[in-house]
Amino acid sequence: MSAAEERAAEGPMMRGYIVQSCVAHVDRRYEATAKARIYAALPADVRARVGRYNDVEWVPRGHGAAFFRGIALNESGEDAAYRALFDCGRSIADAATHTFMKLLLKIITPALFAKKATDFWARDHRGGQLVADPSRLDENRMLLHLTDVEGFDFMAPTAAGFFTCTFEAMGKTAVDCKVSGWSMVRPGPRDVTYDLSWK
Amino acid sequence: MTLEKTDPKIAETILEHVADILLALSDVGAGDYSTRLETSLPDDHPLGTLYAGINEMIASLQSEQERSAIYRRELEEKLATIEIQRAAIRDLSTPVMEVWDGVLCLPVVGALDDERSLDMTESLLRAIVEKKARTTIIDITGIQVMDTGTADHFLRMARAVRLLGATCVLTGINPGIAQTLVQMAVDLSDLVTHRTLRDALQESVDTYDDDDDDAYSRDAQQRALA
Question: Could you say which of B12, B16, B25 has the minimum Cβ distance to residue A100?
Answer without folding.
Answer: B25
